[in-house]
Amino acid sequence: MLRRRLTEQEALLWYHIRHDIPAKFRRQEPIGRYICDFVCYEHRLIVEIDGSQHVESLHDKYRDRWLRSQGFRIIRFWNDEVTHHSDDALDAIYSAVTGRDSE
Questions:
Q1: pLDDT computed for residue 50 by the predictor
Q2: What ranges do the domains of the chain cover?
Q3: Which helix (H) or strand (E) holds 76?
Q4: pLDDT value at position 72?
Q5: How far from 74 is each of 1, 5, 6, 49, 86, CA to CA, in Å?
Q6: Between vectors from CA 41 to CA 73 and to CA 33, what angle results, nearest 5°?
């Protein structure tokens, strides 16, 4: 059910990813035993949008470590960042897929 229903922040970012980012992303994509909010396989990029339940999450640390070991880069945004600063989030994603990021 969670895979079908997007949060307000996921819906906002998904709209802009589909229309403004020059790369193909998949939404709610399983990788290994994890479900990722948005994945671009071409650029090995995962974008996650997190709520307060993720603050200092040990599970997320293990998850991120495993996903990085599989060759993925991970960008995380807090819900508030997407709600109030969506342009900054989109700029970070755009930079990551066009190779103009600092990673």
A1: 81
A2: 8-97
A3: strand 73-78
A4: 98
A5: 24, 22, 19, 11, 17
A6: 75
61, 3, 10, 53 alpha-carbon torsion, rounded to 10°: -40
Residue 6 token pair:
């997007």
Please tell me whether residue 82 adopts helix, strand or coil conformation: helix
Average pLDDT, the chain: 88
pTM, entire model? 0.86
CA distance 82 to 90: 9
User: What number of helices (H) and strands (E) belong to the chain?
Assistant: 4, 4
Q: Does domain 8-97 correspond to CATH entry 3.20.190.10?
A: no
pLDDT one-digit tens code per residue, 28-77: 999 999 999 999 999 999 999 987 555 566 788 899 999 999 999 999 99
